[in-house]
Design brief:
mainly alpha; single chain; elongated
């Protein structure tokens, strides 16, 4: 009886392993550095240039407003001894108003730049993710990870799909321009 039980256990183990062996799936994993792809793509470079121009334009306006405030402050300090209390109070109120306008201008400019950056990079990242999805489906990847700083501790260089994604993205944008 013991021999029959051992034989049954061995047969079950053999059939169990063969059933498991039939289900072995090849796993293909890759990763993409989307930040690198964003920064090195033609659209990303153009977006960066556009944002830098917008920032310089905003900074020029902010600097002009700042100089006007400094001039008003200097005038107030020079004239404070000869101004009547009412005139001094009016100048101080004007100075406060200019400072509030300046702070509002700075905040609005920062918000506008952030919004513009979000719009531009959001569109590019959306397109890059679509290309990653397509590569994953066409080339039989089980999993494609995003290589964010410090998240992938080790991976073979062959698993890096960033250059492929970047090349396909630039090609797709070149075709759409024609």
């Amino acid at each position: 009886m013991k021999k029959v039980a051992c034989l049954v256990v061995v047969l079950l183990m053999l059939t169990g392993t063969s059933a498991l062996a039939a289900e072995v799936v090849t796993v293909r994993i890759g990763y993409v550095d989307l930040v690198k792809a964003l920064n090195e793509s033609e659209s990303g470079k153009k977006a960066k240039t556009d944002l830098e121009f917008l920032i310089k334009t905003k900074q020029t306006t902010i600097d002009e407003k700042g100089k006007a405030i400094e001039k008003t402050k200097a005038d107030l300090e020079k004239q404070s001894s000869v101004l009547s209390p009412d005139a001094r109070k009016a100048k101080e109120e004007e100075m406060e108003r200019l400072l509030r306008d300046y702070q509002r201008l700075v905040a609005d400019s920062q918000n506008e730049v952030k919004k513009k950056e979000g719009e531009i990079t959001g569109d590019i990242l959306k397109d890059l993710r679509a290309i990653v999805q397509k590569i994953g489906e066409e080339e039989g990847y089980t999993l494609i990870l995003e290589s964010a700083e410090g998240q992938i501790l080790y991976a073979k260089k062959e698993a890096d799909l960033t250059e492929i994604v970047l090349k396909k993205y630039n090609e797709s944008k070149a075709k759409s321009k024609k």
